[in-house]
Q: What sequence folds into this?
């Protein structure tokens, strides 16, 4: 395609109004030139197109292979044998760990009493984890038990982790435990595919695939998920991807801009902004997730109770919700957030609780509405007519139907909670001992960052807040589409 | 043998605008293996009668009088029966039972078939599991694998391929959903089945299939059924006894043939004239003038008198009593005078 072709194409697309014609034509020409230079001439377009097609082809091939392999029983058989082998490997690693590392500490009476107790705990948990292998033998012979294999593998992992946390005299010795953990993860995956997915839950797997297809077809959902995964990974890796501790003070470099030593510069006390950012990202996400889900869980409990019982219980709960609802949320939050300072200090969990107190009525009202309409559906009467108790009706008929709404609300609520936490921290009502995104902004404000042009103190937390809330919003929208088929584009 | 007897049942809805006498002095006797059809206009109290029989009336409704006799003593233990007898309450009257005891009866000895086309199945559970849950509720100790076999069996019995038991409700057609609901009502081998407009939302062909299946099942299990419908053709298909309800009262009761061919009450006559017959001679369909009465203040005397073509002065003054006629009764002043 030549330069003139592109110009013509763009001209055809738009009919310009007369006064602006020249300007628009000029803009079009510039755009066309730029496109030509950077997009087509460099071969970038071709390369990206080719990559896209190639990527799709590879995915297709993998999927076809997966379909093909899973039709063959011998493949499943091999997979099952591998599962058992990996399991045995994991267990033998645990036994090795116990015999060569943990037991000698105990038997040789090295170290203090504390070390001995830790070693003993370590041995016990290792052996407990190893004992779960007995279950594998049962499961191989008893068909009904097979679906619980992955669950048992997860339990085993928890046991190993508990052993690690409770007693770890010197971490260099526990190479075996690491291997055991790795083998266990592989076992879970294999066990799931070879024992569970094929037997019984092929349908639910396809259901999951359908939902994930809808999710990933939504571009916003994809973007949101990628952003969130990146942020969570950064927060989780935290200390290992920086040279500093969050409270390290590099007094030689105060108010330094981004440089080789400090990627995102330093503040008044020489704190490394990048390290502090990673630290606060974790806290902010934690507050968001905890406060958001707790809020909706409480709201759901109250909403469903109120709708199901009705009568005066409904009246009291909903009037109470109204009282909280009519109060302006921000002043109420300030008021509540200042209370813990009477006791001394405020912890991030208190911020979460405050969020729950202020925002539960929103979800309670929504869930109540949904539950009220569900309560009148025939299947609820039908369940009652079959002799179901109220508890049974609520847990097995009402809640599963409320669940999709709950899920979307949890995501929305998490987003809101992150914002409010940042807001409170910015106003100085946060936990002063733990870093958080809002606190970073507050610190920047206190150091007159805006006036002095210390942009590296303002932009990182601001962008981090924007990205977290944005990712939650995007994911929420994509979930909306799964839950509500009418929103789907065809 | 009388299985279920509803005696002078009165169910009122206590609303803010006044007391709605939805069911007022209704009596029905259901014999073993009998199918009673309960017909009438919308809002005449058919469903309320049957929900009362299962004690599933919701607020603001209340059963204010009458008895519902059903022998459920096999589901009560000795202590519970003693307790009831100490209070001088009849253990056979299920209105005397506690809610928890009542739950043992529902779905186990008296079950209900709902109208299946709309929302009667929970969209988030597999159909088979929904049928299975009745077993889980009433036989908590049963072996799940064996229970699932029973579910598949009952699916085949009601005419659904058992491979569909793992489907979700939205994957089934209207007729299949209805059959699944029938399966749900029958799986615990109840003695009395109440069908609340089971075929109303289905098209005629599927209606016929489902009715046929229902009738066959009724015969094989020797079920006693109460069939609620506003469609007289459905009733003529399946029932042996017919009760016509109007404004919360049964106006005519008798064997199907008698009520159809020699209907006595003016309302029954009007109702039958209002729907076409395929076999009989062509005739102009007649509508019943006026609208159903407001049950908050029903008309005095006979509740049908404002719309009755044969209204007499006494009709608005005195409530007609049930006059026995061939194997049944009719509540109309026309025949009371004849008897005198």
A:
């Amino acid at each position: 395609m030549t330069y003139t072709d592109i110009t013509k194409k763009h001209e055809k697309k738009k009919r310009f109004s007369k006064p602006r014609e020249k300007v628009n034509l000029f803009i079009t020409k510039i755009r066309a030139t730029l496109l030509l230079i950077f997009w087509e001439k460099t071969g970038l377009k071709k390369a990206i197109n080719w990559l896209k097609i190639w990527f799709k082809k590879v995915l297709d091939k993998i999927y076809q292979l997966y379909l093909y392999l899973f039709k063959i029983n011998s493949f499943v058989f091999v997979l099952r044998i591998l599962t058992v082998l990996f399991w045995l490997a994991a267990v033998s690693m645990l036994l090795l760990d116990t015999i060569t590392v943990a037991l000698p500490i105990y038997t040789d009476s090295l170290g203090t009493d504390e070390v001995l107790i830790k070693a003993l705990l370590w041995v016990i948990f290792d052996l407990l984890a190893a004992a779960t292998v007995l279950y594998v033998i049962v499961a191989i012979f008893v068909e009904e038990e097979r679906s619980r294999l992955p669950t048992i593998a997860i339990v085993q992992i928890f046991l190993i982790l508990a052993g690690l946390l409770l007693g770890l005299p010197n971490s260099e010795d526990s190479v075996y435990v690491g291997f055991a953990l790795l083998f266990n993860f592989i076992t879970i995956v294999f066990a799931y595919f070879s024992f569970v997915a094929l037997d019984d839950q092929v349908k639910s797997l396809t259901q999951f695939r359908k939902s994930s297809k809808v999710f990933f077809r939504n571009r916003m959902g994809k973007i949101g998920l990628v952003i969130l995964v990146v942020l969570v990974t950064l927060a989780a890796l935290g200390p290992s991807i920086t040279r500093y501790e969050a409270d390290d003070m590099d007094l030689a470099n105060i108010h330094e801009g981004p440089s080789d030593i400090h990627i995102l510069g330093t503040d008044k006390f020489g704190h490394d902004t990048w390290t502090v950012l990673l630290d606060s990202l974790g806290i902010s996400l934690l507050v968001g997730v905890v406060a958001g889900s707790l809020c909706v869980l409480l709201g759901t409990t109250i909403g469903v109770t109120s709708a199901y019982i009705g009568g005066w219980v409904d009246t009291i709960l909903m009037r109470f919700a109204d009282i909280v609802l009519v109060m302006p949320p921000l002043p109420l939050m300030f008021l509540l957030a200042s209370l813990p300072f009477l006791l001394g200090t405020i912890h991030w969990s208190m911020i979460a609780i405050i969020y729950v107190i202020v925002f539960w009525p929103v979800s309670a009202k929504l869930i109540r509405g949904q539950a009220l309409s569900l309560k009148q559906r025939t299947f609820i009467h039908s369940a009652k007519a079959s002799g179901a108790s109220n508890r049974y009706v609520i847990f097995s008929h009402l809640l599963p139907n409320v669940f999709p709404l709950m899920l979307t609300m949890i995501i929305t609520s998490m987003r809101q909670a992150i914002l409010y936490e940042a807001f409170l921290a910015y106003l100085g009502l946060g936990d002063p001992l733990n870093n958080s995104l809002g606190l970073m902004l507050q610190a920047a404000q206190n150091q007159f960052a805006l006036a002095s042009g210390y942009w590296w103190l303002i932009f990182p937390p601001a962008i981090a807040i924007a990205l977290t809330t944005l990712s939650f919003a995007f994911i929420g929208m994509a979930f909306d589409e799964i839950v509500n088929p009418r929103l789907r584009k065809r | 043998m009388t299985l279920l007897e509803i005696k002078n049942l009165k169910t009122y809805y206590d609303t803010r605008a006044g007391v709605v006498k939805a069911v007022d002095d209704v009596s029905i006797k259901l014999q073993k293996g009998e199918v009673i059809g309960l017909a009438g206009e919308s809002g005449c109290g058919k469903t309320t009668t049957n929900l009362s029989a299962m004690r599933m009336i919701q607020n603001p409704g209340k059963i204010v009088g009458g008895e519902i006799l059903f022998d459920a003593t096999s589901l009560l233990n000795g202590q519970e029966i003693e307790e009831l007898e100490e209070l001088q309450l009849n253990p056979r009257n299920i209105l005397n039972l506690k809610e928890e005891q009542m739950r043992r009866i529902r779905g186990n000895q008296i079950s209900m078939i709902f109208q299946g086309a709309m929302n009667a199945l929970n969209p988030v559970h597999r159909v088979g599991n929904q049928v299975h849950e009745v077993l889980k509720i009433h036989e908590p100790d049963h072996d799940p694998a064996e229970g699932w076999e029973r579910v598949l069996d009952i699916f085949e019995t009601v005419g659904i391929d058992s491979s569909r038991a793992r489907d979700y409700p939205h994957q089934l057609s209207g007729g299949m959903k209805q059959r699944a609901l029938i399966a749900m009502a029958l799986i615990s081998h109840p003695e009395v089945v109440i069908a609340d407009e089971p075929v109303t939302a289905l098209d005629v062909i599927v209606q016929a299939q489902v009715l046929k299946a229902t009738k066959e099942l009724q015969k094989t299990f020797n079920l006693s059924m109460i069939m609620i419908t506003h469609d007289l053709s459905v009733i003529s298909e399946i029932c042996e006894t017919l009760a016509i309800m109007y404004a919360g009262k049964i106006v005519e009761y008798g064997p199907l043939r008698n009520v159809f061919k020699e209907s006595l009450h003016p309302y029954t006559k009007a109702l039958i004239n209002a729907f076409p017959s395929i076999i009989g001679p062509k005739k102009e369909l007649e509508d019943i003038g006026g609208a159903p009465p407001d049950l908050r203040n029903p008309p005095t005397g006979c509740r049908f008198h404002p719309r009755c073509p044969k209204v007499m002065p006494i009709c608005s003054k005195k409530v007609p009593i049930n006059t026995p006629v061939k194997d049944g009764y009719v509540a109309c002043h026309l025949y009371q005078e004849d008897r005198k």
Summary: The first strand of chain B starts at residue 2 and ends at 15. Chain B has a mean pLDDT of 87.
